[in-house]
Design a protein that fits this description.
This protein has 205 residues and is an alpha+beta fold. The protein contains eight helices and four strands, in the order βαβααααααββα.
């Protein structure tokens, strides 16, 4: 597999357990709609957030600074989520998002509106704590709700799906992706939603 996204196509790596990826979905979709382009959504599993241990009188400077950075990152996320009217419950859940990622690969076999509906619904429901993304039957019901076929989904999850997910991860790692959201355009990598204005300019050009 090539590590470059096709010229003119925007490839976006996401993980459903990442709050940063969730906050990127709406503006990324808005950009795609405004420019009339397709987005190639790719699953990339990252480590879940881990809560810093409480402060202690014996903490050294490095420990204190790590805690300060973590506390700021949490406040920053909640600020943006509140401004956008999004719910972010329990940032520190230790969730395995593998099944949801396999569901994305399955949804990508369907037309673009189905893929987007899957992404939007899984993110929204997961972060409202209204969907267990570790439950294959719950994801199957969601696929049915958005009009995606589920015949063969269970077999996909247990057989060819994991290998396909590993192949996507290997490709993204080769391209330099290390966190989500990550954007690839014409061989260039942009890590984080803060780059969307530049990506818009490049796509517009």
């Amino acid at each position: 597999m090539t590590s470059d996204a096709p010229s003119g196509q925007l490839s976006v790596a996401i993980d459903f357990k990442s709050p940063h990826a969730y906050l990127a979905i709406e503006p990324t979709c808005a950009l795609a709609d405004a420019l009339g382009i397709a987005v190639d959504w790719q699953p990339f599993l990252v480590a879940p957030w881990r809560k810093q241990r409480p402060s202690s009188s014996g903490d050294d400077r490095g420990t204190r600074h790590r805690r300060f950075r973590a506390e700021y990152a949490e406040r920053d996320l909640m600020r943006y989520a509140e401004a956008r009217g999004l719910e972010l419950r329990n940032l520190y859940r230790q969730t395995d998002s593998t099944l949801a990622a396999l569901g994305l690969l399955w949804a990508k076999r369907q037309p673009t509106p189905v893929v987007r509906a899957y992404i939007e619904r899984v993110f929204e429901l997961h972060w409202r704590e209204a969907l267990d993304i570790e439950d294959a039957s719950a994801l199957s019901r969601l696929l049915v709700e958005i009009g995606a076929p589920v015949s063969g989904f269970e077999t996909f999850v247990s057989r060819e799906g994991p290998a396909a997910l590993d192949a996507v991860r290997a490709e993204l790692l080769e391209a330099g992706v290390f966190d989500v959201p990550a954007y690839r355009l014409g061989g260039e990598l942009f890590q984080g939603r803060q780059h969307l204005p530049m990506i818009r300019d490049l796509l517009g050009a």
